[in-house]
Amino acid sequence: MNDGGIIPDPHVIRDVAVLERLYGTPTETSIVKEADHIHPVYRPFIEAAPFFVLATNGDSRLDTSPRGDAAGFVVVEDQHTLLIPDRRGNNRIDSLRNILRDPRVALLFLVPGVGETLRVNGRAQLSVDPALMARFAVDGKAPRSVMVVKVELVFFQCSRAIVRSALWDPERHVPRSALPSGGRILAALSADRLGGDEYDAALPARVRATLY
Question: What domains can be seen in the chain, in order of their start residue?
Answer without folding.
Answer: 29-165 (2.30.110.10), 174-209 (no CATH)
